[in-house]
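Q&A FORM
Asked by: J.P.
Topic: structure of Chemokine interleukin-8-like domain-containing protein

PROVIDED:
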Amino acid sequence: LSLCIVTLYLPICTYSYVEILPRGPHCKTREVIAGLVSGEKICLNSHSGWVKKLARFVVERHHHANCTLPQT
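REPLIED BY: S.T.
REPLY: Here is the structure written out as tokens.
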């Protein structure tokens, strides 16, 4: 599987999912992978301002979804 690094802004409607992988032995920086509705996977430039905002949104949304209490 080959991924290209995208530095240009892509509209959010083109993503089917966003995956954030922490830095580790496989890569020195955090990886932000986007799955596109076309079926492609791309690696976003994690140093780009819009990617940082996107990653923060994904993390906050994930945190919020996991912290909600079940309705009784």
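FOLLOW-UP: The CA atoms of residues 56 and 62 lie 10 Å apart.
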